[in-house]
Amino acid sequence: MHDSKEFISSSIKALNDKWDFDSSNTVAGGQDSNDLSTLDKYGYVIKPQEVKFKFINPKNKQGNPKEILKHNTDEYEKLMKIRINEPKNADIDSMRPPAEGDFDKYQYESATIIALVRNSEASNIGKSIKRFEKRFNSKFRYPYTFINDQPFNEKFKKHMASLSQAEMHFVEIPSNLWDKPEIIDPEKQKKLMDELASKDIAYAQKESYHNMCRFYSGTFYKLPELQKFKYYWRIEPDVDFYTDINYDVFKYMRQTKKKYGFTVNLYDIAETVPSLWPETLKFLNMGDNYKYVNPNGAFQWLLDDLQNPNKNAEAGGYSCCHFWSNFEIGDLDFFRGEAYDAWFNYLDSTGNFYYERWGDAPVHSVGLALFADKNDIHWFRDIGYVHTPYMNCPNRESASCDAGRFTPFDSLLDQNCMTNWIDYSMDDPNAIY
Ligand code: GDP
Ligand code: MN
Fold first, then answer.
1. Which residues sit opposite 171 in a β-bridge?
2. Which end of the chain is more exposed for a tag (fewer CB within 10 A), N or C?
3. What is the reported pLDDT for 34?
4. Which residues, in sequence order, are CB contacts of 259 under 8 Å at separation 6+?
């Protein structure tokens, strides 16, 4: 049984067991010992008087984590086997591609396809673009923005230009948006990253990977070249798209006022984000930062501990479930907004993009779950997508994949947490489309 009090207190207990905070930012709590706010003596609780949690009691989620995983996996596969069409909560027919040759008259959204890549990845990102063009962008010709911490060379630019008729921009990231900040203590960084590497955590010692995660977490939306855009669609090298997309997804975002769209929901490695949630709670308890929390946030998804209690405990109360950010369609105004940006600045000040290995995916996900209305976060379940080894494979006519399959490897099926999204937070859960 999961009522809201029990749920928050177990999250706080895990936090308290693991983290020894100084209480300088503690917010005064209530007097009643049954009042959750008394837990504020630990300093870091989402104050129930300010945030209304709507907790679903998952009736059919009883049993041990293994049973719950089985239930969740079955539920996911069952849902994915249902025929999926285009969204029904918007006027999709008003979002069709322009007739042949009529790109000039097309009413474009303010949007761009973004890809952070190295010159050496020309052929890998090229593959993604070919597939992306075939399924979507040759019909619309949204502009590309290629982003790099080094200047793009002519060979890279020429290869990209050969793959699409769309406009292309090539952007070099200013060093202040990419380089490791000066506050980072190199010795501490080395010691902690050696430790993390000894646990076989990929990229722990690779500083450029940490730069990349910090960039996509909190500085990409500050690039001067992205200021004129409202929406972005992020792509990566070596991804594939399994379904035809015959409507303008950016128009869909605007018409439905969505802030973020994703395709895959999975667990992160808890060791990479041990303090992300605890530090976030610290931030929320500073000054009047609670004002940033959206009363209709995706809290239960964020804090679930039923399917994978170990991860939750290790990450101090965060489920570790996140939107996989190698695919994302987002509203830049969300990231540029005061809440997200203030929170990112706090996260950055902890140094933990370098002392831990916080990924941009969990950072986006925690930010969205707290600061966006969960109805403004959209699972594009109609878009077939793969970044090895995980995919979103809907049952659709044009899909060139095995419907409902999350990964080719059975041993990785436990990494899927989409059912938590479906059960707790999904927009319009009755709209089977
Ligand atoms: P993974 O998916 O987590 O294994 O990480 P990737 O290696 O795919 O990196 C994520 C994205 O960032 C990809 O689009 C990479 O091309 C890009 N990327 C990673 N590191 C760098 C870097 O040092 N420079 C540039 N320009 N791009 C990078
Ligand atoms: Mn990748």
1. 147
2. N
3. 31
4. 330, 331, 333, 334, 368, 372, 376, 377
Which of 117, 132, 146, 266 is the pocket-test mutation for ligand 1 (most atoms within 8 Å of CB)?
Answer: 117
Kind of pairing between the strands at 260-262 and 240-241: unpaired
DSSP string across 233-301: EE--TT-EE-S---S-HHHHHHHHT-SEEES-EEEPPGGG-TTHHHHHHHHHTSTTGGGGS-TT--HHH
Is 403:393 a contact under the CB 8 Å cutoff?
A: yes
Question: What residues have a C-beta under 5 A from ligand 2, the ion?
Answer: 236, 326
Nearest CA to ligand 1 atom 27: 117
Interface confidence, given as ipTM, is 0.99
What is the full DSSP assignment across 180-202? PPTT--HHHHHHHHHHHHHTT-T
Q: Are 151 and 189 in contact (CB under 8 A)?
A: no
Is any ligand 1 atom within 6 A of the Cβ of residue 148? yes
Catalytic residue among 121, 314, 328, 356: 328
- Is the distance from the beta carbon of residue 92 to the nearest atom of ligand 1 less than 6 Å? no
> pLDDT tens digits, residue range 259-318?
999 999 999 999 999 999 999 988 988 888 988 988 888 988 998 889 999 999 999 889
Q: What is the mean pLDDT of the chain?
A: 87
Distance 388 CA to ligand 1 centre (A): 14
- Domains of the chain plus CATH, in order, are 65-425 (3.90.550.10)
335 Cα: distance to centroid of ligand 1 (angstroms): 20
DSSP structure class, residue 229: -
pLDDT at 56: 53
